[in-house]
Every structure is written in C-alpha cells, then in structure tokens.
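To: structure desk
From: M.T.
Subject: fold request, one chain
Message: Could you run this one when you get a chance? Sequence is below, nothing fancy, just the single chain.
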Amino acid sequence: MHNFTPLSGLFGSALIGLAAAMLMLLTGRLAGVSGILGGLLQAGPSDRNWRVAFVAGLIAAPLIAALFGAPLPRPAVTSSLAVVAGAGLLVGFGTRIGNGCTSGHGVCGFARLSARSIVATIIFMLTAFATVAIVRHGLGG
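Reply: Done. Structure tokens follow.
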C-alpha cells in the first residue's frame, strides 16, 4: 500500500464530520453534495446563500490548504473526455435514482442510522469493489 497517511485521513474525516454536523445543526440540511449542488441550480433566493457558501468551501479548501504547504495533486485522467463525461452522467443519474450520493448516504445517512442509507452505502461499496476487480483483473488492466 502506498500513500498510507492515517493521521491526515483521521484529521480530514473529522473535519468532514464536523462540517456535516454543523450544516445539520445550523440549517437542518444534510450534507449531500449532489443534493446541495442540484438544489443550487434551482434554489430560490432564501435557499441559495448557504448552498453557494458550501460549494465555494469545497473549491476553496484545497486551495487554502495549498497556501499552507499541503500538496495540491494533479489529476491523472487517462481516459478520453467522452468516457469521463459518460461516467459523470451515470453518477448523476445514479444519485437521482438513489435519492442521494455517497456523501449524503455514506456520511450523513449512515450517521443517522438510516436503513436506506446503510443499504445504499453497502451497494456503493460493493459496486466499487466489483468495478475495480473487473477493470484491473477482468479486462487485462
């Protein structure tokens, strides 16, 4: 295993949990990124400010961390733009069908012991394991 960084993983996950808890306490909303972003595209004026702040924080946080010396990794996309766009559309379609994304179900729903979110998270993980096994071992990769 390479890039094993348990302390930064622990610190990062604690910050994610803190952010999700603060959003729930301050707005009564779950921190599901696809729902927040999707709602931003159709939000009314009273619902827009917190959504903009949340998305801006997602973008600004790694840039601010880079100012303090954290490495800003360069994405290594080896697939074509069409494959990446198709994958993005499939993920977006899946979040609509599943009523949420991995952040909403896996972080917030799991923490609330929501049966639907626990099942959704298990399905996400099993699908990810199967995809990696097929791509790395089944397709000769």
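Reply (cont.): Helices lie at 6-27, 33-42, 45-67, 81-97, 102-111, 115-138. Let me know if you need anything else for the meeting.
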